Amino acid sequence: MWKSSSVADFLFAPHAPVSVPIARGGLFAVRRVYCVGRNYAEHIVEMGNDTREPPFFFAKPADAVVVGGAAMPYPPQTSDLHHEIELVVAIGKDGSDIAVGDALSHVYGYAAGLDMTRRDLQAQAKKAGRPWEMAKAFDCSAPIGTIEPAQTIGHPDKGAITLSVNGVERQRGDLGDQIWSVSEAIAYLSGFVTLKAGDLIMTGTPAGVGAVVAGDVLEGQIAGVGSVRTTIG
Prior knowledge:
Layout: E1 19-21, E2 27-29, E3 33-37, H1 41-46, E4 56-60, E5 65-66, E6 81-83, E7 85-91, E8 107-114, E9 117-118, H2 119-128, H3 133-136, E10 142-143, E11 148-149, H4 150-153, E12 160-165, E13 168-174, H5 182-189, E14 200-202, E15 210-212, E16 217-222, E17 226-231
Parallel strand pairs: 3-14, 5-10
Antiparallel strand pairs: 1-2, 3-4, 6-9, 6-15, 7-8, 7-14, 8-11, 12-13, 12-16, 16-17
């Protein structure tokens, strides 16, 4: 017969839940972090790939999330750490095989985030036909700003998305330049996995990605959504 467990039943204390602050109060408990690859045409071109392919996804662990403007350490095993500013979608309702027309009803809110990438490891993995996890899913690789509820800001589908390093702009694009819209990305992803409340989807980055070093201050802004900030420790 099943019985509920207590902390004493575990070999070691369960890890603390991961959460992202919600604007004007509350916390969003993170379950999974999905990322859309190659979702802005200019970034696809700068990375040497073709445009308008079906969307593809990779994942980061929930505990890669960094919040509150906290610093992220420069990760080991790389000499080419890159920034990627992205719109983050916070899922608030479960669903699978979601229709494009229903997709936005599953969105709780939005935030600005950074998909930090060990670009040299990614290039090696691509060349060898291997997975990207060690290039994308490392510790502290997903700084995220405050989540703004959709009931407050609506569902932004256009507006500037920018990133500055030490006050100098590096990336600039527009949400309207996304190849796959938020609705399309949700619908497509939900055909592979059941999306659940607590999932985050990072929706791709515009052109202008580049390397950062220890001491750099990264500040991202998305019009109508918010900001994200971190320092490379």
